Amino acid sequence: MIAARPLALLLLSLLALSAHAGRRGMPPDVPAVYAKECGACHLAYPPGTLPAASWRRIVDGLERHYGTDASLDDASTARIDEWLQRYAGTWKRVREAPPQDRITRSAWFERKHRKVDAAVWRHASVRSAANCGACHAGAERGHFDDDDLRVPLGLPARQ
Predict the structure, then answer these.
(1) Please, which residues bridge with residue 68 across strands?
(2) d(CA 120, CA 106)
(3) Can you spell out the DSSP letters for 34-55?
(4) Phi, psi (5° rounding) for residue 75?
(5) Domain coordinates in residue numbering, the chain
(6) Alpha helices in the chain (DSSP H)
(7) Residue 37's pLDDT is what?
(8) In which residue ranges of the chain is pLDDT below 50?
């Protein structure tokens, strides 16, 4: 009976992982180093927004991370990489790596934002397509539901 307990815990863990597989929200076990280091400059993006190969290239190139040196110690890099690989996007529209591994250049992102006027991205309260939190109140938690959109002041409502 004692051996059944570890097996039950393992099965519950696997069930939790499989329940999250393919989801686009933020997994429940965000490493503190990911939230702190990646979230210091931009949204700590949910790993399901890019395929594993994209995350691997991003983590392997932190010393030249989109024009910035975002290098971390080996242990932090390994922890972040392991987590991103575990929860990387596998759903249909994210399997293919976007140009330059940029979320904002992915087919699914462009499709979801196709009606957003270019002036919106340049607005002082938005600044770029990568500033998800400007319009998505739940971005920090990986929630991007259209029902929760908020239009920044001075911008026309979405059509």
Answers:
(1) 65
(2) 19
(3) IIIIIHTTS----GGGS-HHHH
(4) -65, -40
(5) 23-148
(6) 4-20, 32-33, 39, 52-60, 74-87, 107-112, 118-122
(7) 93
(8) 1, 8-22, 159
